[in-house]
Write a structure and sequence with these properties.
- 2 copies of one chain form a homodimer.
- Chain A contains 12 helices and 12 strands.
- By secondary structure, the first copy, chain A, is of the alpha/beta class.
- Chain A folds into 3 domains: 44 residues, 434 Repressor (Amino-terminal Domain); 128 residues, 3-Layer(aba) Sandwich (Rossmann fold), CATH 3.40.50; 138 residues, Response regulator (Rossmann fold), CATH 3.40.50.2300.
- The mean pLDDT of chain A is 93.
- The interface between A and B is large, with 46 and 46 residues.
- Chain A binds a DNA duplex through helix 2 and helix 4.
Chain lengths: 335, 335
DNA sequence: CGATCGTTATGAATCGTTTCAATCCAATGT
DNA sequence: ACATTGGATTGAAACGATTCATAACGATCG
C-alpha cells in the first residue's frame, strides 16, 4: 500500500540513494536523472515518511509550545509569531495548551521530549527541576513571561512595570492628576508589577496622587462594580484618570461610569491593558497598553534556535517594552 | 548521550524485548523484573523515541487539525473539543492554522501526511481532488462546516438555517413583529443560510415582516452604522426586533441604538449569533445563538476514529442544531 | 596510452523501537 | 523418571529514509 523510496527508485531505474539525493541534495544529481525521479514520485504519489527521517536524523524539525490557554489572544498571537519565525526555517510548531494545569503541562512536555523536539517554549508553572533536566537531556527551553534563577535557561518577557509607568505617565501627560488603579488580586505577578509601575510614575510627578481600587478578578463584571464604586465617591475624591489592569476591567469601568453620567474622557480619562481587539470597538474607543506578543513568540524561537545551533552559547534574557495605543478614552479634556 | 532501550536493558540485566514489554505489555513481565526495569528507566532518565515507535508501527498516534484561524473562538473551542476527545484515546492533535490561505493549507496537509497522521480534520477550502487522494493514500478526512459531493468523506456541521429560524422565532415569541436582519455580505454561506432561516421563520408566522439591512462585513463598526440607519428610520417603519448575523454586529447595533435613545429590549429586542464570551458582558447582556463548537470537534474526532477502526464503514454526515442563549436583550417588553 | 580528476550513482549500514518465533525453566501430571 | 504445560524471557528481523565510503564513467592531461 505505502509507497517508499524503494518503489520510487525501481520505477525510475535508479538506486535508493539517488532518490534520497534528489530530495535532499539535488545538486548532486544530474538534471535528467532528477527529472526522471521526480516524475516517478509524482506518479506514484510518494510521500516521505517523517518518522524514518527523524529516526535517522536523531532529532525532529519541530518546536514545542506550551501555552496556558490557546484562546487567550495573548497566547494566540504569541503562537502566531512563533509559527511565522519557525516557518522561515522550515520548522513546525506543535502547540499544546496546559489550561494552567500542572499535570497537563507535564504530559505535554513528556510528549515533546518523546518527539525529540528541538526545544520547547513554555510560559507557566514548569517545575524548575524538570526544566533543568530537560536541558540536560538535550531539549532546549525558552521561558515566556517568567524568569528563573537558573542561568542556563533563556527567557523572553514584557516589562509590566514599564507598562504601568507608561499608562500612568500618559494619563498625567494629558492633564490628569488624581489617578485610580483598578485591578487585582495583587497576588498575580503581572498585576502587582503594573501597580508598581503606576506607583513609580506617580512618585516622579509633582502633585499627582494614586488610589487603588482592588478587584478579585479581571472580568468585565468586576470592572463594572469597581466603576460603580468610583461613581459613588464624593466628587472631590473622585479620580480624573483611571488605569485598569486589563481591558476587560476597563470596559466594565467604562460601562459603569457612563451609566453614572460621567463622561469619558471629559470627566475621567480611562486606559486599559492588553489592547484586545475589542478595545477599539467600545463606545468610546479605549486607550490601552499593547504587548508585543507576536514579537515575543518570534524572539522566543530565535533564542531557541540560537542555542540549538550553539548549545554552549550563553542563555539570554530579553525584555520588551510594551507600547501605548492612544484612543479617544484618554484624549485631552476639551478645555 | 541519548539513552535507549539497549542501555536500559543492560542496566537492568534483561533483554531489550523485556524492556519493551514493560513499556507496552506489562502483564507479560514478572512484577519483580518490571520493577527492576522501571528503576533503570527512572535512573537513566530514559525517554522513548517516538520516531522509532512510529516507524515500526507504521502510523502515528496523531490527528491533524487545520483551522482557518486559531484565535477565532469558534475554532479555539473546536480544537479544544477535538483535543479532549483525542486525549481519552491517548492521541494528540496537531493544530495548524491556514489563515484562509490555500497554500498554507496545502503545506499543512503535506506535513500531516508526512507525519502519517491517523487522519485530518479540516474546515475550509481544500481542493476536493486533494482530499480524495489523501483518502486513497490512507489519510482519513473529516470536513467541518463544509459538505462535499464526495460520498466517501465524513463531515460535521451546524445548521445555520435552523439557527436563523431559532433566532427569529425567539423574537416573535417574545412579542416582536417587525424584524430586521442585519448582516452581510450574503455571499458568505453562513450569512445567507442564517437569512434563509430567518425568512422561513417569518413565513410561518402570521403578521410578521422581515427587512434586511445588508452590511459589507461583520464588525462592530459595521454594526454601528447599521444601527444608526435603524435609528434614522421613521418610527413607524422601525423594527421592534433585530437579528444580527453575528455578535460583533449586534454589539455595534446595540451601541448605536442606545446612543439614539432607543431602549433595549423595551423598544427593540436584539439577538446576535455565535455567543462569544463578550455577549454576556455588554451593557445589556446580549441574547445569542450558540454553536456547539466543542461538541463539533469532539464528534469530528469520533467520526475520524470510526473510519480508522473500520475503513470500510460508510462516511457519516452529522449536523448539529445550534442553541438559544437568552439574555436581557430579548426579554419581553415590560407590558 | 595510462594516469588523474570530477561528476554521478550505488547500496550496505544505520537510527531505536517493537514484534514474534524460539527458548528456557519450573511446576504439574502420569 | 519423563512428558507436558504455560509463564517469562530472549534476540534477531523489520520499519523506511539517510549517509557515506566506494565504484563507475567520461573527460582531460602529460
Amino acid at each position: 500500500m505505502a509507497i517508499g523510496v524503494r518503489d520510487v527508485a525501481d520505477a525510475a531505474g535508479v538506486s535508493v540513494g539517488t532518490v534520497s539525493n534528489v530530495l535532499n541534495n539535488p545538486s548532486l544529481v544530474a538534471p535528467a536523472t532528477a527529472q526522471r525521479v521526480q516524475s516517478a514520485i509524482d506518479e506514484l504519489g510518494f510521500v516521505r515518511n517523517d518518522a524514518a527521517r527523524q529516526l535517522r536524523a536523531g532529532r525532529s524539525r519541530t518546536i514545542g509550545l506550551v501555552v496556558l490557554e490557546a484562546s487567550n489572544p495573548f497566547f494566540a498571537d504569541l503562537a502566531r509569531g512563533a509559527e511565522e519565525r519557525a516557518y522561515t526555517d522550515g520548522l513546525i510548531v506543535l502547540t499544546a495548551n496546559s489550561d494552567d494545569d500542572a499535570v497537563r503541562e507535564q504530559v505535554s512536555l513528556d510528549m515533546f521530549q518523546q518527539q525529540r523536539v528541538l526545544g520547547v517554549v513554555i510560559s507557566p508553572r514548569a517545575d524548575p527541576v524538570r526544566i533543568q533536566r530537560m536541558q540536560e537531556q538535550g531539549t532546549h527551553v525558552v521561558l515566556v513571561e517568567r524568569t528563573t534563577t537558573d542561568p542556563t535557561v533563556s527567557s523572553v518577557a514584557v516589562d509590566n512595570i514599564a507598562g504601568g509607568q507608561l499608562a500612568v505617565n500618559h494619563l498625567v501627560t494629558t492633564g490628569r492628576r488624581r489617578i485610580a488603579f483598578v485591578g487585582g488580586p495583587t497576588s498575580i505577578r503581572q498585576v502587582s508589577d503594573r501597580l508598581i509601575g503606576a506607583t513609580r510614575a506617580i512618585g516622579s510627578q509633582q502633585g499627582t496622587t494614586l488610589q487603588v481600587v482592588e478587584t478579585t478578578n479581571m472580568t468585565v463584571l468586576e470592572g463594572r462594580s469597581a466603576g460603580e464604586s468610583i461613581v459613588a465617591m464624593e466628587p472631590s475624591e473622585r479620580p480624573d484618570g483611571v488605569f485598569a489592569a486589563n481591558d476587560l476591567l476597563a470596559i466594565g469601568v467604562m460601562q459603569a461610569l457612563r451609566s453614572g453620567g460621567i463622561s469619558i474622557p471629559d470627566d475621567i480619562a480611562l486606559i486599559g491593558y492588553d489592547d484586545i481587539d475589542f478595545a477599539m470597538s467600545t463606545e468610546v474607543p479605549l486607550s490601552s497598553i499593547r504587548q508585543p506578543s507576536r514579537k515575543l513568540g518570534h524572539t522566543a524561537v530565535d533564542l531557541l534556535l540560537a542555542r540549538v545551533a550553539d548549545p554552549d552559547s550563553p542563555a539570554q534574557h530579553i525584555v520588551f517594552d510594551p507600547e501605548l495605543a492612544v484612543r479617544e478614552s484618554t484624549h485631552s479634556t476639551t478645555s
